[in-house]
Amino acid sequence: MKNLRLVLTLMLAVAAILAVTSVSRAVVPDAADLLGERMRFHDKTFTTPPSVSLDQRWLQITAIAAFETQTTDPDLIMDAYLSAGAFVTYYLHADTNYLWTGSAWELESRDLYTYTSGNLTETIMQDWDGSQWVNAFRSVQTYDGSNRLFTSMSQIWEVDMWANSSLLTYTYNGSGLVSELVFQSWVADAWVNFFKSLFTYSGNRLDTTISQLWDGSVWVNQGRNTYTYNGSDQVTTILNEGWNAPVWVSAILTTNTYTGGNLTQSLSQSWAGQWNNFSKRDYSYDGSNNEILSVGYGWVSNNWNANDTDTSRYVSNRLSERVYVTFQPFLYVSRDLFTYDGSGNLIEEIGQADIVGTWTNGSRTTYTYSTSGIFDDDAASGVPVGFEIGQNYPNPFNLNTVIPYSLAGDSRVKITVSNILGQTVTTLVDAFQFAGSHTSLWNGQDTNGRDVASGVYFFRVQVGELAQVRKMVLLK
């Protein structure tokens, strides 16, 4: 629940740090929060072609966020990837952060979001000085003619004006996938190269990411990640290498094991002439495939020693509580509590610490949303001229399936799933949405969060007065 200002500060301080290449764990305060913040930002701005699966979209977002924040811990990266994909049907308008004073919540900071024609174009971060909100940072986004994120510029508030700080520029390949990300800093009234990342693909699957630093005249290789997949397009290995001119040198290998479609273990090993155990994390799930327990281990004296555990609880398949227990270097217990509105949007997150057996408040973030384009005058409303829906994928499916659709204009959208008797099983979307490409996920459950039986189902997409129906098959 930390603001983007921490990310910006971190970016300006890591000129000598390798991008996702260090064998040792990154010692960065609140690294998970930084990574998660950038992933949430990209979820609101990052566009991929309809043919790209949600897993691949989140893998690309994770890779970009890890690169931006210089996150090197493979466990943090994997946890962030697994925690991604929280679908919000409304546009986030603002989030407000509080600190616990011992008896009451005290305002700390807030983020305000502005949208233009459905795209996030500005985020302003402000601090509370005790009597009023004071500008601190802002992020301004631009988009290309294909409605893809083109630039993201960060600025710092100096007395009475915004001063340039950093600039991210995105380049895309012929398939519409990001191929290059360049980070520049504002120095002496000019943008100066700092670092960049190159992305390659096999089909629509992310194949490699290469990190490079600018030495003043040329780009110099720093790190490379190479991904492999199983038949279900799940990431099975991530090979992390460092550059030792003129060759790549192995650093960390992360191997993922899946059971029933769920990740059950992520093992990281470091290279020293051979692969040596480094760390691992084991995962457990409930009957609805929600992660309920993860345990992190470190390899010490040829044995796995538990370092930490995360225990998650759910209400109606929404995460309601996550308890964190750290064993090393000392015992520390904390938790996050999550509250949602009737549409499934996260509206409150509270962080607490276990102090002598009592849960003590620490931090709080509240979120507010809007159902329509009230943030500017550019978001036109009304029934679109037309819309298209694609076939769900995968189909048949076992755990989850994705329903792709596109809107020619801004309109109210309702997506329902029904059985062969015409009975409504669940409603996936019922909200105002902006023009463009969209996806909706169905996890094979009814409105009450119960798994439905194998068989034929129908999804109906209604846009204004128009509707289309497609058939899908659930196999268990």
Helix/strand structural class: mainly beta
Query: How many structural domains?
Result: 2
CATH class of the largest domain: Mainly Beta
Mean pLDDT: 82
Categorize the overall geometry.
Answer: globular
- % residues in beta strands: over 45%
Low-confidence stretches: 1-29, 371-385
How many helices does DSSP assign? Answer: 4
CATH topology heading of the largest domain: Lipocalin
Q: Fraction of residues in helices?
A: 10-25%
Major beta-sheet overview: 20 strands, antiparallel, barrel
Radius of gyration: 23 Å
Distance between the termini: 38 Å
Number of strands: 27
CATH architecture group name of the largest domain: Beta Barrel
Explain this structure to me?
There is one protein chain. The protein folds into two domains: 90-370, Lipocalin; 387-474, Immunoglobulin-like. 11% of the residues lie in helices and 57% in strands. The chain is built from four helices and 27 strands. The protein has helices at 4-12, 31-45, 54-69, 74-83, and strands at 91-100, 105-116, 119-128, 133-143, 149-158, 161-172, 178-187, 190-202, 205-214, 219-229, 235-244, 247-259, 262-271, 275-285, 291-300, 303-315, 318-326, 332-340, 346-355, 358-370, 387-389, 401-407, 411-418, 424-433, 436-442, 455-463, 466-474. The strands form three sheets. The chain has a 20-stranded antiparallel beta barrel. A hairpin with a 2-residue loop joins strand 19 (346-355) and strand 20. Helix 2 packs across helix 3 (54-69). Residues 1-29 and 371-385 have low confidence and may be disordered.
